[in-house]
Amino acid sequence: MNYKIALLKGDGIGPEIVDSATQILSRIGEIYRHTFEYTEYLAGGIALDTVGIPLPEETILGCKNSDSVILGAVGGPKWDALPGHLRPEKALLGIRSALGLYTNLRPSVLFEELIDACPLKSTIVNRGFDIMIVRELTGGLYFGKSGRAGDTAYDTEEYSVTEIERICRAAFEIAGKRKKQVTSIDKANVMESSRLWREVAERVASEYPDIEFSNMLVDNAAMQLIKNPYQFDVIVTSNIFGDILSDELSQITGSIGMQASASLGASALGMYEPIHGSAPDIAGKGVANPLATILSVALMLDHSFGLKEESRAIESSVQKVLARGDRTADILGSSDKKPLSTSEMTAAVLSFL
């Protein structure tokens, strides 16, 4: 099979980690006889510097005409002083909206091999875990009306029944293939949008009687993820709550450099990216952890292309690398071993493929 993939390398460490991911993908193509055709497009700060806007129309069209999209990272202090509509992060919101990618899957996996890198004490975390955050991606606070009036600034959260229904159904469908448990997280004791969210989530839950369902307030959820992460399997929540809680989970799993994500819509076209930022402080030094982007490619093979064996091959190779004790600096922990560079970690994964 031949697959067309749009590459949005972006800023900071983005080009380095995307290059690692495409090396893995190309090797998968050699082994399983697929062809992956890559085309680069501008997005983020590099697009601002080159053409004056964070998301050129050419990029949107190129992504729409591809089978999938791999994104590195966007943004950095260089562009922090720009007005909101010109910030590199607008490229993320824009491409998600343009491609209709309303479901964001953020698997938070604590590998057994990385328990020592987890900041929680051993009486709380004594084995690995796998939590899936299903985050609504094209509505809520990030897409509501916002602006300034005099010395006041405002951002508005809006959700429709349709938006909540489709993300909840996505969560229940995923839960049906896992441990059959869904926790919906909101702020229904304060926010009207969350009260609607809870009403719709409970109605959708009634359509899946074989799946255990519960509601939880977001502030309690933030505490419970630290107190006992094992109580969760699939979490479904709003755009902003999903953004925050998945970053919290990234630290519990050892490093944000391990966290992959998939952004999906109604079609097979998806966008795959690590959840971390552009890390401009280490850009160009060859020390970034490429595993989150490599694991994002595994998600792409599974969810967009249906290549489950190929996806599992990548995940298995990453696990074997970790089991061997290979680490980049962010997951080195207390080990006295020398950390691997970006290219060395990529080569290690390739060796197991």
Cα(first) to Cα(last) distance is 19 Å
- Report the order of strands and helices: EHEHHEHEEEEHEHEHEHEEHHH
For the record, the CATH class of the largest domain is: Alpha Beta
The number of helical elements comes to 11
User: What name does CATH use for the topology of the largest domain?
Assistant: Isopropylmalate Dehydrogenase
Supply the CATH superfamily name of the largest domain.
Isopropylmalate Dehydrogenase
* CATH architectural designation of the largest domain: 3-Layer(aba) Sandwich
| Biggest sheet, spatial arrangement of strands | 2-1-3-12-11-4-5-10-8-9
Give the integer mean of the pLDDT values.
95
- Low-confidence residue ranges: none
Round the Cα radius of gyration to an integer and report it: 20 Å
Task: Describe the protein in words.
The chain is α/β, with parallel strands linked by helices and 353 residues long. The protein has 2 domains: 1-103 and 259-353, Isopropylmalate Dehydrogenase, CATH 3.40.718.10; 119-252, 3-Layer(aba) Sandwich (Isopropylmalate Dehydrogenase). It is built from 11 helices and 12 strands. The protein has helices at 14-32, 45-51, 57-64, 90-98, 161-175, 192-205, 218-227, 239-252, 291-303, 308-323, 342-352, and strands spanning 2-10, 35-40, 68-73, 103-110, 129-136, 146-149, 152-155, 181-186, 212-217, 234-237, 260-264, 270-274. A 10-stranded mixed sheet has the order 2-1-3-12-11-4-5-10-8-9, sandwiched between helices. A two-stranded antiparallel sheet has the order 6-7. It is globular and about 50 Å long.
